[in-house]
Amino acid sequence: MHMSPSHDPSIASDPYLSIADAETLILTREDIRQMVLQTGLDVLMDEMIARLTAAMSTFRAEDASIPSRQGFRYTHPAPGLIEWMPCMSDGGGRATIKIVGYHPSNSGERNLPTILSTVSAYDTTSGHLICMMDATLITALRTGAVSAIASRLMASPRSTTLGIIGAGAQAVTQLHAVSRVLDIDRVVVYDHDPFALSTFPLRTRTVSGHLDVKSASCDQVVESADVLCTVTSVGVGDGPVFNGVEPKPWLHVNAVGSDLPGKTELPLALLHRSFVCPDFRNQAIEEGECQLMPPEKIGPNLFELVQNSEKYRFVQEGLSVFDSTGWALEDEVAMTLFMELAAEFNLGMQLPIENVTTDALNPYHFAT
Amino acid sequence: MHMSPSHDPSIASDPYLSIADAETLILTREDIRQMVLQTGLDVLMDEMIARLTAAMSTFRAEDASIPSRQGFRYTHPAPGLIEWMPCMSDGGGRATIKIVGYHPSNSGERNLPTILSTVSAYDTTSGHLICMMDATLITALRTGAVSAIASRLMASPRSTTLGIIGAGAQAVTQLHAVSRVLDIDRVVVYDHDPFALSTFPLRTRTVSGHLDVKSASCDQVVESADVLCTVTSVGVGDGPVFNGVEPKPWLHVNAVGSDLPGKTELPLALLHRSFVCPDFRNQAIEEGECQLMPPEKIGPNLFELVQNSEKYRFVQEGLSVFDSTGWALEDEVAMTLFMELAAEFNLGMQLPIENVTTDALNPYHFAT
Lengths: 368, 368
Description:
- In chain A, the strands form two sheets. In chain A, strands 2-3-4-5-6-1-14 form a seven-stranded mixed sheet. In chain A, strands 9-8-7-10-11-13-12 form a seven-stranded parallel sheet, with helices on both faces.
- Chain A is built from 13 helices and 14 strands.
- In chain A, helix 6 (136-154) runs parallel beside helix 7 (169-181).
- In chain A, a hairpin with a 6-residue loop joins strand 3 and strand 4 (94-102).
- Chain A is α/β, with parallel strands linked by helices.
- Chains A and B meet through helix 3, strand 2, strand 3, strand 4 and helix 5 of A and helix 3, strand 2, strand 3, strand 4 and helix 5 of B.
């Protein structure tokens, strides 16, 4: 991948090109596969981490509009939710909207990922739909990448053991991303589902060939970890996913699973002893571990740590928690990367979806 | 079109068919064109009116989740907004989300419709994206159809003259729809833009061949109308679009243009003398003519009139206003119709967009 700063793909830089013919770039899962294979997983993850870091380092809340996600939550026909995550980060130019479904029975009952998602980009000059693509992989990649950024800032730089609780799809990119920024040599994993647990080494072998990946009891995972990722589908009100076990005094936790009111993963006592950094405070208070925290005990947002890393270096000495609920800015950054890759590799198809015409005032133009 | 009650297209009735291969039906503007041409505009509009009436007659708020639309509103690079309109109407099964852009400078500066839109349907069992299609035409069609329903219920049955203020794209379907349910023989139109005004007869000739379509001054339009559609892009704070003119005592107004806080079309005095029925009260209070109304003076929602037409027949004798801001249920009904037409005519393409796999727990499945 040659993503030099001068790289300037037409799709990303000239929305008017797409407006002129009003076509929409559709990237299929085969396009995504080609981009990943041609780029390589390590290069892709490193690029995702670098771009997310860059986006956070220049982020200014006053230039962005990123409302808390909203959605439909239901228990029938199966428990699940469909949420929309809009983002307009640069004060104009482009807006992205990710639609994400979370259906924990998918993998067991339908052999589909728990998280299914697509993301769309709109030109804010005209409202034109520029691009629509899969965001299932994007979601996993950026969720891993943001844990890596948090771990680099908050975990002890001497961390060597990564603990993982919950060995599903999201755990794969957590392992990959965190091991790209810390000198991890050992991974200990727990899942209450024996199938997920037993298949984890095979599922991660491409990105963990140099690592010793072992399963362990939940308590052993917590006790031995320097960095811990909790990546579970714990039910609402069923948390915490571990308790009554003393971690290392410098443990950093990436708490990834919380994404619903009432759904939390960590013991209250650990939260109260830790420096807690949310990805997006307003959303974390509604859906993340921060639900359990008094507002005055919640630390700064991750982008503030990125922008003031020296000031917060002390966090690496003690207990810390990154409360990752998923921030729409991450999706926008990830989508832009894949749109640029599509241009570089000439992938995707341009489809004339919106019903535009040379007679803009006539919705019945094709019948007159 | 043979849309008998037993019509049972696989796409609409069996979402599992799509889930199994996790493909997404994409309908392009050419597919839409084929559906419209093969169906015929009159049959299509009649079907839209019939289905919307049916959906409203069985609508129960407690079975639906239709949040007020939200969006990005901005003035740079051009004044506009991008909004999301989610709808889950039947207590599960399917959710739809329409994304709609409103950019008044589109037609003048980019030869694009002011309204550009797409709509997507999701299976609520799995979160799978079932279908994505243009909603530019759908928006125009359903906005016309719902004005027809309101006019049939609230206008005098002896109405023969239709007045239109604002001769843009939405005016075409207003004329078409209202003339399908009332014995309109004369249409008087005003637009401050001479181009829009002069081209209106040509743009509507397919659906107004039997009508006498004439331009007139704004005051003449208001004075002569039995039914009036205001379909303008009036600026925020620039309303009302007419004032100081006495309408017929039985005038029914379909106020279609209001869709922003501060953007209203009608004189306060007329609203205060009229029976005012919003499409969706909560949204109309934020964005419609109802912004100007004390809450206790706002009448029932349109679906309540549909469900109690005898009770509200008295409205036909006096002044009435339908405050049409655009209700997501209308888009869901319209989308379902087009999905069924696509199945009937075997149109659209199934694309594998979501990154699903036989190994649902492995986002890196294609690289292992």
